[in-house]
């Protein structure tokens, strides 16, 4: 079976660079010990049950359109088992590219330590998004524990090319534009520049997570508050480093799966929008949140089913020769750096229920993050699981070193706390409430 690449798939392929593999990060941790052989059998069972997981790029010539082909069996065993530092193994995994010619387009690491075990998933962004990684991990956990893995009553290969009617309206913009001049970059701070990614992980306790969910202002969602906190963090960070921050934009993926199956389908089914603010929008928190909410509301109504902008449309055009699109990408990197979004926030949202590896304990930590190619160099992933908000600051070592990334993550958490507290105080004083999206 052959399946044509979507424009989103094409972008995931054309943006690949060996120094920054285009892979989604997904990670769970448990307080107990996961059996490696049992986990390997579970992974094989899931690969057999879900055809899309066995997809690989059809070996077409450079001037031909790209297709996925579904292999009868996976080409390789994606699971490796190791010990040592979880942090070191995480960096090692996400420094390794995933070859699109061999299925599955993911790598798994079971990391065993005396304190806890971790399962890391690195999945190529040409075929996976964050929600897809969540779905895959749920399937693996279910197979490991001998539990059923329900499949939606819709062909997932069909869903890949479908659009959500309530979110698609032709001719509507995918974001509210801001002033047409150079987009701010996050100020660099590194004493150890080099290839690869680093990760700064944070977890908010249940009380501040609940306070964040209750921080409503004119219908703002938790995601809107996180966007506002990230804008404030970048502005404060750049002020510390004497760098510009007037016009900032944040890439925001939207889940385009059917509403009734929001967390169920494999594949890269995200739609990308851009949220922008200026210094004038940040004169106070409420004005900032209002500016963000207007844009996210519009984006949810009119999300573009294709890559945003002329650059995305050209590079995602599967009928243009791949070699031509790579040449265009290389020629346009300097110009694109002026308008590429400042950073990215990928929020999977609240993950219902809980899940565990039978005998190893319930999963108590769950992080995810999107790639952060230069010139962006930094992205933030968010999940809410078990009543706790999990934040990942993923950064290129070329932009921030480990110490600077930890400082940035601490500043972000502080901004989330302070913004939620400020909105809660205003809400209580004025009696203003709104629905959380």
UniProtKB/TrEMBL annotation:
* Domain Condensation intervals: 27-156
Q: Name one Pfam family in it.
A: Condensation
Q: Which domain of life is it from?
A: Bacteria
Name of protein: Condensation domain-containing protein
Organism of this sequence: Catenulispora subtropica
